[in-house]
Structure formats: structure tokens, C-alpha cells
Amino acid sequence: MRSDNADDAAVEARTQSGVLFRLLDPAFGFFVWIGHLILIYVAAAVACGLGLVTVDRDGQSGLVVALATVTIAAAALVGVHGVRRFGQRQAASDGGFLLSIAVGHDALAALAILWQLIPISMTPPCR
């Protein structure tokens, strides 16, 4: 009797986590975007606050290259997620509605992440 209850509890936990995953999966790109924004702004603030970026161009260009690399990596992560979800749309039981929403959200989030390259490349990291 106990094993049946334990098995039922395990199945219910997996089902609930599956529902949570299905609800949060379309927002994956936005979560990466939020994490990316926090990471690049905190990294720039810490580098400037600790004096890790020198006044010369080499120190500043090193920080700019690091921030641009993180930005491109975050956009690539969102792009890979979007491509995977796009491939799964045909086999989806609900006609791929949530997967289509996820692909659209990932495209918007990737664009927003890449948009951050403009202020990274145009403004000096520390004033």
C-alpha cells in the first residue's frame, strides 16, 4: 500500500513539474535576457568600482570585449532554445501553440539581448 502512495506522489510531482515547465518554457528567452542585463551591468560596475579598468584604451577594450562576448553567448543560448522549440512544433499535441509562442519570445529576447551591443560598443565603460 505504501509503495502505491509513493508511486502516486512521484507521478504527481513529475506532472506538476511538467506543467510548470510548460508554462515557464515560453519565457526562457526573457529569463536569459534578465540574467544577461544583471550580469553585464554588475560586471561593469564592479570592474569600474574596483579600478580593474584602467584609463588607457587596452583596459577599457578588454572590458568591452568581455561584455560583448557574454552578450553574444546569451543571444546564442536563446537562439539554440528557439531553434529546438521550432523543430518540436510539428510533434506537439496542442498543435504547437506554446512552442510557437516560445519561438516568438526567443526571437524578441535575442533581439533585445543583441541590442545591448549598441551601448556596450558606443559608450566608455567607466567615466
The parts where pLDDT drops under 50 for at least 5 residues are none
Gross morphology: elongated
In total, how many domains does the architecture comprise? 1
How much helix is in the residues?
A: over 70%
H-E order: HHHHH
Overall average pLDDT: 82
Q: How far is the N terminus from the C terminus?
A: 69 Å
How many distinct beta strands? 0
What is this structure, in a nutshell?
The chain has 127 residues and is mainly alpha-helical.
Can you tell me about this structure?
The protein is mainly α. The chain has one domain (27-122). Helix content is 80%, strand content 0%. The chain has five helices and no strands. Helix 2 runs parallel beside helix 4. The chain is elongated. The relative contact order is 0.15.
Key terms for this structure?
127 residues, mainly alpha, 80% helix, elongated
SSE diagram, text form:
Elements: H1 2-24, H2 28-49, H3 57-88, H4 97-115, H5 117-122
Helix pairs in contact: 2-3, 2-4, 3-4
